[in-house]
Amino acid sequence: MSADTPTILATSGGIRPGVRVWREFSGLTEFAIELSGVYGRAPRVCCLPTAAGDSPFAIASFYDAALQRGIQGSHLTAFPMPNLSDVRGHLLDQDVVWVGGGSVAGLLAMWRLHGWEEILREVWQAGVVLTGISAGSICWHVGGPTDSFGPTLRPVTNGLAFVPYANAVHYDSEEQRRPLFHSLIADQTLPRGYATDDGVGLLYRGTEFVEAVAETDGKAAYLVQRGTDGSIEETALQVRRI
After folding, report:
1. Bridge-partner residues for 233, per DSSP?
2. 7-241 has which fold?
3. What are phi and psi for residue 77, nearest 5 degrees?
4. Is residue 189 exposed (0-12), middle (13-18) or buried (19+ Cβ within 10 Å)?
5. Per-residue pLDDT tens over the stretch 24-34
6. Could you write out the DSSP letters of every residue in 106-125?
7. Cβ distance 12 to 198 under 8 Å?
8. Looking at the annotation, which residues are catalytic?
């Protein structure tokens, strides 16, 4: 199955501490699976753990979560070499591509090195739902604040830009995110963009923002844009609880 239009669910959530396993999938990942339209069989979800350096622990944690949920899980790694001979064919056969957190700058470099940027664009246009957390949210956008370069946040501006907006994640839990996001949009380093508190996701159909959704009560999402006088306008969005 595939979504009826190209679909991205960019999140600051989708996983949570598990009971029997270290991490388990939560409401935002469930929503991504729902968006794919799959029914009557186990959803096919491929994990790209590139941002975590293809950490074996991250991969094992994904499979534990997938087994618990009844997902047909798979993974695509770049280190020390791609583990799949037909990356394009495998990703096109998925219902959901799920991208984990870590270094978005490293993720983008490795994906481009291996030619995965255009494969992922084709996969997205074919209706496979693209989702992920943190780096797995920023990557689909033009860019946003990142700790890829160290504990003092810096901008990444070379995102895949499947959607033409900037993105800030962990907006309520990491104090550097909001002021840097504001300054990057104010000085036009980045275009207008969307920010998510932890537990919130942004749904895009094609290149258009559709809605903000939350797996946790009391969480927010924002549209941040530059005003005509150069000031920053931050607008709280309606957030639908899923």
Report:
1. 225
2. Rossmann fold (3.40.50)
3. -115, 155
4. middle
5. 999 999 999 99
6. HHHHHHHHTTHHHHHHHHHH
7. yes
8. 134, 170
Q: Could you count the other beta carbons within 10 Å of the beta carbon of residue 242?
A: 13
Q: Indicate the residue type of 86.
A: D
- Find residue 86's DSSP bridge partners: none
Closest residue by Cα to residue 65 from 84, 88, 49: 49
Q: Do residues 198 and 220 lie in contact, with contact meaning Cβ atoms separated by under 8 Å?
A: no
b/e code 156-182 from CB counts within 10 Å (16+ = b)? beebbbbbebbbbbbbbebeebbebbb
The yes-or-no verdict on residue 1 having pLDDT over 70 is: no
Task: Kindly tell me the sign of the dihedral angle through the C-alpha atoms of 127, 131, 136, 139.
Answer: positive
Q: Output the CA–CA distances (angstroms, integers) from residue 86 to 48, 76, 95, 109, in the order listed.
A: 15, 10, 17, 20
Give 26-31 contacts, CB < 8 A, sequence gap 24+: 26/215, 27/215, 27/242, 28/131, 28/199, 28/201, 28/213, 28/215, 28/242, 29/96, 29/98, 29/131, 30/242, 31/201, 31/213, 31/215, 31/242
Tell whether omega for the bond before 80 is within 30 degrees of 0, i.e. cis: yes
Average pLDDT across the chain, whole number: 97
